[in-house]
Fold:
Amino acid sequence: MHQASLLANEITEAIRAVTGSSDCALHEPSFQGKEWTYVRECLDSTFVSSVGAFVDRFESDLANYTGAKHAIAVSNGTAALHVSLLLAGVQTGDEVLVPALTFVATANAVRYCQASPHFVDSEARTLGVDAVRLDAYLGEISTQREGQCVNLTTGQVIRALIVMHVFGHPCELDALMKVADKHHIALVEDAAEALGSWYGQRHVGTFGLLGALSFNGNKIITTGGGGAILTNDTALAKRAKHLTTTAKLPHRWAYEHDEVGFNYRMPNLNAALGCAQLEMMQIFLSQKRALHVRYAAQFQNIQGVRLVSEPLGCTSNYWLQALQLEQAQADNRDHLLDALNAAGIAARPVWKLMHQLKQFEVCPRMDLRQAQALEQQLINIPSSASLGALESVDDLP
Amino acid sequence: MHQASLLANEITEAIRAVTGSSDCALHEPSFQGKEWTYVRECLDSTFVSSVGAFVDRFESDLANYTGAKHAIAVSNGTAALHVSLLLAGVQTGDEVLVPALTFVATANAVRYCQASPHFVDSEARTLGVDAVRLDAYLGEISTQREGQCVNLTTGQVIRALIVMHVFGHPCELDALMKVADKHHIALVEDAAEALGSWYGQRHVGTFGLLGALSFNGNKIITTGGGGAILTNDTALAKRAKHLTTTAKLPHRWAYEHDEVGFNYRMPNLNAALGCAQLEMMQIFLSQKRALHVRYAAQFQNIQGVRLVSEPLGCTSNYWLQALQLEQAQADNRDHLLDALNAAGIAARPVWKLMHQLKQFEVCPRMDLRQAQALEQQLINIPSSASLGALESVDDLP
Structure:
């Protein structure tokens, strides 16, 4: 415990050197652009609800920014995942491969489709799904029947694979797309944390059949609550809009709906905020990268912990800064979390692994040794973009 | 068709006498209070998302206004209905009694619980579920087994009854509560349209085990998108908050969730708008009542059509003004709708009956003769509160 306290002091000092002495939240939004102008314009128009010019503009701006052919604004990232899975063909009784190391919404969305999450392991390099081990695992436990991947043990179809870009760091998309293709599994990207992250030259969320974004209050940009579905498939985009707007058929005055749809619309009021926030992306990204550089300078000489950096060949949005404890320090995680939070520095572990939540205990899973190791090693530290703007930093490397 | 055209002209003139000559929407929100102030305050606080003072205040204000012991703000009325049904115990394979004459969200919410809507008829007086005929119907088709109501034909448990307050007019709650009690069926109120409506001296949405409100852009007050669950049961209120906030367990830093929850939170930004709108309720209610009085004066001498009024002993919010065509005129409904809309007066029929939508065609249902008659007879006409403020009117009767 003595060693743990020493490390806690070193980490606290390193963070304080970057953030200053004030209490520090994990992630706060920043409204320095046209947020009020657009929100007021929206109020003045009285079009605050599910139809309005800001929704159309936000969708168009998101498509332009990400390079996706289509973006459909919805009420939150969970709704985006739910509808993405439905459109990927997930049906009652199916299995969907989900990283054990993710936020609970990823697994919940599978359950909303009456399907079962099937948990897979992550790799330390990207924090995302381990493509090599997943391929080997599917080779052992599944077979192809009529062009579908069938779990030999459960007899259920493995319909989709959700990959998740943890803390904004892109996972190994090339390899994961190949695994999904080889096993005839649809790829859906949970890019909730990854607006502004690129795998090579291409924005994440545009590699899978569909991708889900989130604009919750703690994300790189916020709409209060909100999300979006990205897709390059025009037919799926139309279906996404239809399903998220109660499946109402267009008509001058009649109310007819042709399937069980959802009320997953993003209100125009929230889209107005989103339009202003999206205009600030380049500033947020450069501030977050500057913050990373400053943390990196502080942590380079601290033994027992390293700052998590973007995978080679990728550009991360550095949504959440993370420390990774050396294996020998992993038992000290909770002590460090207590010490940091007691010092007024918001810090948190990564999510409890999905297969350890009682509602998902019975779900199928592969050996999860790496996710289990990472869960004990990862600590998020204050990551607001504004912290990267506290004082001038040298040009980025 | 000649007679229909004459009637269309009479109705157009009657509406124009009230609304003036400008084009007229069906229902527009009005922001004449502190909407800007509160929304600006919310942006300035940076707490725009799922935690914030305006959410707490909106919930408290709603509870005070309605007299409900608890109000839980959620993302929309559909979400409120979904969670209300889950908390009423609706399970996979159950049946839920739902009026055929309702908006599609009522029936969709049942499907989200993997249950089946079972459609019941309405009465002309209140436009709500007909308690007398429902009691007789349940006597014929169901039996009690171990304290549960079981459908003799399907063998499924009839778990809940949703009643809906159409256009804001309270349905016959005393009689419906008795029917639900007698048959051991949980009562849930779809009060999406009925904020500001009282059955006797008690606000609707507080009679059932749970009640659902909506604050969509077309409702009497709006939060952009939003809804709320009302209940007098403290344990259910806690469960509602838990289920709608991803079922996260409270902890300083850990992320643990103990069941499959939902991301149904109302963002603080939307709650800020709601707080300001709720302060305007008395003005909206008096304007809507004034509009009704003015329409009533215009329509009293037009043959073939009557203006729908609140049921005796109830106080309606008059959310949507409605005309009811005499049976002999019912075939002219679509002609009238075309003529009114062509004249720049937004008018629409009531919703297509639920059992006529293809996704609900196979659901069980009772004889729906009254709902079918009403569907052909009802036309909504411009109903914005601001129309009631166009010029001074005499004191209300």
Remarks:
- Residues 392-397 of chain B have pLDDT under 50 and may be disordered.
